[in-house]
Amino acid sequence: MEAVLSLVSLTVTKVLQFSGLTDNWNAPRAKKMEEKALEVYDVIKSIRDPEKPNTLEELEVVTEKCVEVQELGEDEYLIIIRFSPTVPHCSLATLIGLCLQVKLQRCLPFKHKLEIYISEGTHSTEEDSKSASFIFERHFHGLCGTRS
């Protein structure tokens, strides 16, 4: 009996995959993650650069593509942000990361964990970029924790 149920389950799974119906089940989830990412982007795009009168969006420090949201559980999300400093030798990259973290903690209405990184190849050297990412992982990840 168990073998028959296993065979039926496998057959149904294969039929759904070939028919494209399983993609339709994932579509609402993918759309929900895109909507959450846009919600996050709407919060961070208006942050002003510490040295310039422009917003991070205007300076292309953050873009819609730099925000990724993954579902961790029911109504809990992992937000990953990869920003690009305005110049390769930007000394305020850590401050920008902190601004992102504080703004999201204050403004997002849903439970989340946050990871902030400098986009690869956008800082003065690859090693600077890696060490800055390490700083964000080590310090900000712990600070960001889960928002209740």
From TrEMBL:
- Top-level division of the source organism's lineage: Eukaryota
Transmembrane stretches, by residue range?
A: none
Q: Which GO terms describe its biological process?
A: chromosome segregation; protein maturation
Supply the alphabetized keyword list: Chromosome partition
UniProt keyword Protein biosynthesis, yes or no: no
Q: Which InterPro entries match?
A: FSCA_dom_sf, MIP18
Q: State whether keyword Iron applies.
A: no
Tell me which family the UniProt entry assigns to this protein. Belongs to the MIP18 family.
Q: How does it assemble?
A: Monomer and homodimer. Component of the CIA complex. Interacts with CIAO1. Interacts with IREB2. Interacts with APAF1.
Q: What is this protein called?
A: Cytosolic iron-sulfur assembly component 2A
Species the sequence originates in:
Haplochromis burtoni (Burton's mouthbrooder)
